[in-house]
Amino acid sequence: MFEARITQGSVLKKLVEALKELVTEGNFDVSNTGLSLQAMDSSHVCLVSLTLREDGFDHFRCDRNMAMGIHFGNLSKILKCAGNEDTITLKAEDNADQLTLMFEAPSQDRISDFDLKLMSIESEHLGIPDQDYSAEVKLPSSEYQRIVRDLTSIGDTVLISATKEGIKFSTSGDVGTANITLRHNTTPEKPEEQTFIDLKEPVALTFALRYLNNFSKATPLAPQVKLSLTKDLPIVVEYQVGELGSVRFYLAPKIDD
Amino acid sequence: KSTQRKISAFFGNG
Fold first, then answer.
1. Which residue from A40, A113, A128, A250 has the least number of CB within 10 angstroms?
2. Residues A180, A45, A246, A97, CA torsion sign
3. Which residues of chain B does A159 touch, with a Cβ-Cβ cutoff of 8 Å?
4. CB-based contacts of A173: which residues, under 8 Å, 6+ apart?
């Protein structure tokens, strides 16, 4: 059987809200190391990779590897019924066709359970190579959200260029053009408000803003976001979810013909 | 003119 308990149930609520518009369905792969998900959007332009470690849960048991096919819109409907302070327990028998979600209020005076019907999903698993990136930028997740939201109102695509001057986001559209540059800045006292730019070599890539904007739905999960860039490769937009794990979004670039 | 690539063009089957 599979059983996973998390005291901070709001994390699961936020995770599903971050994913549900990008990927309608996918498999939760559970094993004794934790829970993971890999899913592409419907146009196969981006990929979401979620990893939640076994030791990040308050209790985790998985006797047998399973792929649980989840419809994220439906999971979201159920998780909306959980209180923000609730402890959430996920449970499934081996080869079950449903996932049970149990919500416990902190005062222990309200306990509810919901069964989510599971789906059979054939998913293509992609191998993501470990690699070094030309530029890695860590910035406040709220800053990333603001940049992609602002630029989405001006244009459809963004040129992201990392140089020793900083990281520049440029777009253009019917109304005109926009450029936003962030510099390496470790002045703020709070680490989560700092911007770190680790540049091995200058790099410039073009991406569809619609997806970058969609990734920012994960902002409530983490105070910082990491962008990793290498020429002619997908950008990685990564949110660390505390001690529990991470959610990574990979977006294929637009490349000149 | 630039073209939007598919993500599978970058990552192999794993």
1. A113
2. positive
3. none
4. A154, A155, A156
Separation of alpha carbons A46 and A255, rounded Å: 15
Name the nearest CA neighbour of A18 among A237, A220, A236.
A220
Task: Find, in chain A, the residue whose alpha carbon is nearest to that of B10.
Answer: A233
The complex's ipTM? 0.94
Residues facing residue A27 across a β-bridge: A69
E strand or H helix at A148, and its extent? helix A141-152
CB contact under 8 A, B7 and A252: yes
Q: Per residue in A182-216, pLDDT tens?
A: 999 999 999 999 999 999 999 999 999 999 999 99
Whole-number Å distance between alpha carbons of A4 and A146 = 34
Nearest chain B residue to A209 by CA: give it.
B4
Integer angstrom CA distances of residue A237 from A65, A141, A247, A248, B1 = 28, 10, 8, 6, 25
Contact yes or no for A44 and B6 at CB 8 A: yes
Contact call for B7 and A40, based on CB within 8 A? yes
A176 to chain B, any CB pair closer than 8 A? The answer is: no
Q: Are A94 and A66 in contact (CB under 8 A)?
A: yes
Chain B: closest CA distance from residue A47 (Å) = 7
